[in-house]
Write a structure and sequence with these properties.
Layout lengths: L1 H7 L12 E2 L4 E2 L4 E4 L6 H7 L5 E2 L8 H16 L14 H14 L1 E6 L2 H9 L13 H7 L31 E4 L3 H11 L28 H10 L1 H7 L4
Parallel strand pairs: 1-4, 3-5, 5-6
Antiparallel strand pairs: 2-3
Length: 245
């Protein structure tokens, strides 16, 4: 079976694309992992260590696990198109084989992600220097009132209401192998190393630091009213991941 897959799915042949062609920052084929980068959860530091050279099939870094699962089939379909050089056709995979390849890799790859305290994350979103910048346009109280989705301030909003929505399938089932809290990063990296038998040896580094952000002391920005607004808006995250103010 392995030999058949290698024959049907050669690794990024130059005949398919003139430049090196990768799926996305979310998927690392060599390390056999899928990292779901939820915005403002320390994802830049992880993505920088998983960075690959090449043109991304889907450039957006913040895909959900469901989007990755569905797009893997399209990625392999793209790689298989326009490759037939002989007659009769022998080496081009069928649609069934393409789907089997995509499903096999999705199921076998180590899928992980990070989440963050919703109250701290809201402050980080408000003070962000990328995406949609709002700190000089509306007050923090207005921001809390209007912030309905966990990706509202992103250039490519997915309209996920909560962080957990990046990690689930159509029926709300979590598809991840490991989800850690940003607040427990160091111990989480040790656990990831153990779970992958050393394949993913990630370091705790600081990337994309915003010196103007007040997320470290996020409690100082809240009133009883805004605290309750965030508790209601992101109740699912708070309940599932057991966060408190």
């Amino acid at each position: 079976m392995k030999k058949l897959f290698r024959r049907l799915f050669p690794v990024q042949k130059s005949a398919v694309m003139p430049e090196q062609f990768i799926f996305n920052e979310a998927v690392h084929f060599e390390k056999q992992c899928i990292f779901i980068a939820i915005p403002k959860t320390g994802s830049t530091a992880i993505r920088s260590q998983l960075k690959q050279t090449g043109t991304a099939f889907i450039p957006n870094s913040h895909l959900s696990i469901l989007q990755v699962r569905e797009a893997l089939y399209v990625y392999y379909l793209k790689n298989a198109l326009g490759c037939n050089k002989g007659f009769p056709t022998k080496s081009i995979p069928s649609d069934q084989e393409i789907r089997a390849k995509a499903n096999k890799e999705f199921n076998s790859f180590f899928k992980f992600s990070a989440v963050r305290n919703p109250w701290a994350r809201t402050v980080s979103l408000y003070y962000r220097h990328d995406g949609t910048e709002l700190r000089d346009k509306i007050s923090f109280s207005e921001f809390c009132t209007q912030n309905k989705y966990a990706s509202d301030t992103c250039h490519h909003p997915t309209l996920h209401k909560n962080q957990i929505d990046w990690l689930t399938d159509e029926n709300g089932k979590i598809l991840m192998d490991y989800v850690y809290k940003l607040e427990n990063l160091n111990s989480a990296l040790d656990e990831i190393n153990r779970l992958t038998n050393g394949r993913l040896s990630l370091k705790s580094i600081r990337e994309n630091i915003n010196p103007d952000s007040k997320a470290r002391n996020y409690r100082d920005l809240y009133t009883d009213h805004t605290k309750k607004l965030i508790a209601k808006a992101f109740e699912k995250d708070i309940d599932h991941f057991k966060y408190s103010f």
